[in-house]
Design a protein that fits this description.
By secondary structure, the protein is of the alpha/beta class. The protein is 53% helix and 11% strand. Strands 3-2-1-4-5-6 form a six-stranded mixed beta sheet, sandwiched between helices. This is Transcriptional regulator. Residues 18-73 form the HTH cro/C1-type domain.
């Protein structure tokens, strides 16, 4: 991009503002759709930031909402223009989870629970390549390389000297025990995980098997929070063919409470490093 504008975040902010204007007008999405001769689903997608929005859309909606302040209209039109720029990830072509990447790129903090594998932001390149190859057996070598490169680019947020991403990762023991690639690769990955855990803005906790049932038993999820107070937090749940983004306050609060329970049940930071060290020793002994 020519600027630091994040199109994904711009769409979210613009959608939130358009929803606010509609609600101030006392109109439903269905009523707005009828006035503009479009589908209700289009209005919903524009408001939730999942659809690209044109300046013409903004102009038409401001007309329906009778927005008379030209400064507001001009500001919304500029946001629409910004939202149609391309983020850094577009240079890699079609990325299935591009919406998530856009959110992660602008997030101030990320809390993630990972039950199966090491979180993407903490993976070595070799681990990522072996993992993607195993997870997507029908993918071409070029597609695998592209995905690995995107993952490496995302990890720059961890190394950002000025505004690093605040990352909190709770990882199930199964992610440490699952041999991705081979045991030597796992040794290198776990050593990297310990190294990353020493960064002041990265916290890693392991949830051992003997903790039994826990609030994250249903699977992976992540909670993204943003530096601008106007941007609501988002819960991200990855799917096979589609992803789920939860932004309602009640949903975010419920997952946040679940995460606090996970953190409480997991080993603390020092215990986690010792535990990972023991797993590394197990792999080392097995390679002799």
């Amino acid at each position: 991009m020519a600027s630091n504008v994040n199109p994904t975040v711009r769409r979210r902010r613009l959608g939130q503002e358009l929803r606010r204007l509609r609600e101030l007008k006392g109109m439903t999405a269905e009523e707005v759709a009828e006035r503009l001769l479009v589908s209700q689903s289009k209005i919903s997608r524009l408001e939730n930031g999942r659809r690209s929005i044109s300046q013409r859309d903004v102009r038409d909606l401001c007309g329906v909402y009778e927005v008379e302040d030209h400064r507001i209209v001009d500001s919304l039109m500029q946001m629409a223009k910004d939202s149609r720029q391309q983020g850094w990830w577009h240079a890699f072509g079609d990325i299935p989870y591009s919406v998530y990447i856009g959110l992660e790129t602008d997030a101030a903090s990320l809390r993630v629970y990972e039950p199966q594998v090491v979180p993407g932001l903490l993976q070595t390149r070799q681990y990522a390549e072996a993992l993607i190859t195993g997870a997507l057996p029908e993918s071409s070598a070029a597609d695998i390389e592209k995905r690995v490169n995107v993952r490496a680019r995302r990890q720059e947020r961890i190394r950002d000297a000025e505004t690093p991403l605040r990352l909190w990762a709770v990882i199930d023991e199964s992610a440490l025990r699952r041999v991705v690639g081979d045991r030597q690769l796992m040794i290198e990955q776990l050593e990297h995980l310990v190294e990353q855990s020493h960064l002041p803005h990265v916290t890693v906790q392991v949830l051992p098997f003997d903790m039994g049932a826990h609030p994250g038993i249903s699977g992976h999820y992540a909670i993204l929070e943003f530096p601008d107070a106007s941007d609501s937090s988002v819960v991200y749940i990855e799917g096979v063919t589609s992803d789920l983004y939860l932004e309602k306050a009640n949903d975010v609060q419920r997952y946040s409470v679940m995460y606090e329970h996970l953190r409480a049940q997991a080993l603390n930071v020092e215990q986690t490093r010792q535990f990972i060290g023991e797993v590394i020793k197990d792999y080392t002994d097995a390679t002799r």
